[in-house]
Amino acid sequence: MLYKMKYFLKYLIVLFPLILIGQTNVPLNHSYNSFVEKDMHDIGVLKHTSIKPFSYSHDDSIYFCSFKPIVSKKSFIHNFLNSNLLNIDHVDYSFVVNPLFHFEIAEDNEKRYVNTRGVEVKGRVGEKLTFYSSFYENQMVLPNYLEDYVRNNENVVPGQGIVKYYPFLNEGIMDFYYANGYIDYNVNKFFDIQLGHGKHFIGDGYRSMMLSDNSFNYPYLKITTDVWKLKYVNIFSHFQNINFNIDAPDISKSKFSAIHYLSTNIGERLNIGIFESIMLGEDSLGNVFDVNYINPVIFYRPLEYSIGYSRQGNALLGLSLKYKITSTSHLYGQFVLDEFAISDFRAQNGAWRNKYAGQFGIKFFDAFSFENLTLQSEFNFARPFTYSHFKPTQNYAHYAQPLAHPLGTSFLESISFIRYRKDRWTANIKLIHAKYGGEIAGDTTNYGSNIFTPYDENYKELGNDIAQGNTSNLQIIDLRVGYIVNPNTNMKIELGLIKRSLSDRNIFDDNQYLFFCFKTDLQNFYYDF
After folding, report:
1. How much is the mean pLDDT over the chain?
2. 297: exposed, middle or buried (C-beta count within 10 Å: 0-12, 13-18, 19+)?
3. Which of 244, 313, 369, 467 could form a disulfide with 278 if both were Cys (CB 3.0 to 4.6 A apart)?
């Protein structure tokens, strides 16, 4: 009894800073969330799992208490391995500091490495105001396909911003900074307001066809309303369109986005989400923001027509579903509508204007009665021209990357996962097979595979199919085993092998990437495309 009480008290020591911080966001990371979210999907639990990042709550103790502390007599080492490196706790405030890092050595056809150092600071002032800030400095040498992507994609490292120095880039070294942060004010049990610079994710899958954390951070204002079985989220964001191939004054164009998402629990098993977004690009006078789009409860297209507004934005509508088969399994899906003509759909004539995307998936927790064995499989697709616009500044993208799926548009993708955790040991398998379209060199036809190309340039009126043009076939096998050193910061040691094969009508590229790393795994960076 005394032995159990000793460990219970140590668990409380680990959890106490989390409880005090309150409305701090749970890290937006799939491997972290895969264990935290298991109990959120029980039948009868009415949490809205499609809106991420989550907020810390007392329920998270289930996850953290599953780890026995790594005992050390030195408090500094004990905190580093079990909780937060530095804690300052008071009735009126709390303050936490943790180191962030990613040290990786790897090899494919050449030596590769990742050298990331950073710090996070988070805390609480009073009972309602919380804050978070993190900063990373990075140097890395990436596989050839990622280096080519950076060079051909406005020098943007996937999800992490622009490379800092050209001399380093010429040597294949990516050198850049990365930061995010927010302040959160919990007005009452119904309303929460967050102002920050970061990312969001809408959906229950690995990918999102609505809004994912694929692109770089962006400034935002998020208002969350949680009443009864409803959760309503407004996200007002400032994005940037980057193009170094045009005149210097136009290299970066601003755009404003407003997103509404209503999540509704129907009974104990079904969740339905309704999504609407508008993207408004900078006009010839440099105007971006318009007060008409601030209304938090409105449909944007009727609004634009009612005021006769000439600067109409790029609108998306979406529907998400989740159905709990059992307390340990559920189905989920999304459908996004960009533009649609019912007559063309009935005719099945491949009209370019039928622009839509979708997702269907299934997930099992504690599969086959093995605790912490998670299985997941999903299918994603997007028709050509989806997410694009006749004004490139109004496409559904930010910092030269899609805001939804990393492949952009005109693709079919199957992706499956096996995740397992035993005590602090983890094992993960990810399998991806995708087919996506591309433009053909020397052919001026717009095949609708590039969301940064205006959709009204050289398009085919009819006969458009998914993955048309220069069709690429992608296969990825990602195997990892790891040891969780600190569950609070998802600090882990990991050994893995990633095999990637890509072929189209011009190339065949095969890459086998063997790596060993020590990292705090708190974010998603999508290199699997």
Report:
1. 88
2. exposed
3. 313
